Amino acid sequence: MIKFEEVATQTTEEYFNGNQFSIDAFKNKYAIQPEETYVQAIKRVCDYVASVEDTKAARNYWSDRWFDEIYNDWWQPAGSIMQGAGSGKKISLANCSTVSLGTINGDEEWDTLESIIRNAAFTVAKMAAYRQGLGIDFSRLRPIGVNVLNSANKSSGAIHWMQFIDSIGQYVGQQGRIPAFLISLSCSHPDIEDFIKAKSDHNKIQNANISVQCSNKFYRAIENDAEWKLIFEIPGVKKGQKVYIDVHSKVMDAEFDKEKNKWYYIARRDRPKERIEKVVKAKELMMEIAKNMFEHGEPGVQNIDVARKYSNSDYVYDPNDEYDSRIVSSNACCLDGDVKVLTNKGHMSMKEIHEAKDESLLAMSYDIENEIYELKPIINTWQQRNDSTVELTIEEDGKNYHIKCSGDHPILTKNRGYVEAASLSKNDNIVILK
Question: How many C-beta atoms surround the C-beta of residue 7 within 10 A?
Fold first, then answer.
């Protein structure tokens, strides 16, 4: 093991064997003072990160181990950690984060000036100031030309607001460096055709990278040379109705609903439900993506269903924290349409839930930490084919229960925690609501 004391006098030039690119990159971006060498920076980072350990022995062990591994180039800390750890400056140790445009839950207002300006724009500015890269999904913003209830009359569309958010990096720089942006839009958003071509116009989005969120359903439509619907729905609101809003997007007359643990305002006028729909050929849309990618280097592609399926982001979600820090992701696993789910309106099949499109529906959920059952909002449902369906027969107190689901659907057991359905055995003790 190489310890810091053995190489403490080594210069940055010696460590990088005279490679001027590496030397300049370290000195210009990561050294917290001109005289700091690379090995001193490694020691600073290791000591800082190890400082959370309870004992001196543990702190020394981890700092020494990490120093040896980094020095030998087995792995390297991310740029923000390298620059921020132990620096004493307001630098985030998170290299990249995602930004919400107002809310995670489907029963909350999202497409408001408060969510765009007060929430997203301010968060982007603070992230830029703290050296974070960031990604922001604009799929919740209504498309261009839709009615709005202010002096504008018509929505400026998602791309208009992308230009505004993109420009923030010009004003909140990082030592002359524009922060890294990634802007994305769903492949089913009505503005997607203009978004795909955005980089062909050098007056539009020029600082941020852009990506199309491509779903498995979209890929299947391409394979089948099928039509593809671009859809955006704006829920209706009745005068006097409670309209829930994101905690970061509160309006002046917002009130707090203790029962739901959410902020809301009272609607002062009716707003009709709107559904914007356009039909295109899936293959032609994909060809536009490929064409613009070839000619302008963008848009990129986010295989969003794959990312969500393998994401572990929900594990950082604290349901008791009103400032919801969860990265937006969805459960890509499936239940058969005939499977019954207990809701606030009685037992309903998944097919009935999907077809109801009822924003007030709550489903029975199990709180593992507190070992209690509780009703939780059904945020969204999707209908899609799954080629790996399994049927489970569960015996409890002499009664058999049957469930059809995808092979990777997580089933909660008492003996092994969550287990994918296809991996269950006769020895597993499945948690059943009684």
Answer: 17
Q: Which residue is it, tokens 């491509």?
A: 214
Q: In whole angstroms, what is the distance from residue 169 CA to residue 185 CA?
A: 20
| SS3 (DSSP) at 268 | coil
107 or 101, higher pLDDT: 101
CA distance 277 to 233: 9
The CATH-assigned architecture of domain 333-423 is Beta Complex (2.170)
- Please say whether the beta carbons of 218 and 188 come within 8 A: yes
Hey, where are the domains in the chain?
Answer: 4-84, 96-314, 333-423
Percent of the chain with pLDDT over 90: 26
What would the DSSP string read from start to end of 158-171? Answer: HHHHHHHHHHHHHH
How many percent of the chain have pLDDT more than 70? 83
- Sign of the Cα torsion 342, 344, 346, 348 reads negative
The amino acid present at 358, given as its one-letter code, is: D
Domain 96-314 has CATH 3.20.70.20: yes
Q: Are 104 and 321 within 8 A, CB to CB?
A: no
Torsion, Cα 26 29 35 39, to 10 degrees, reads -40
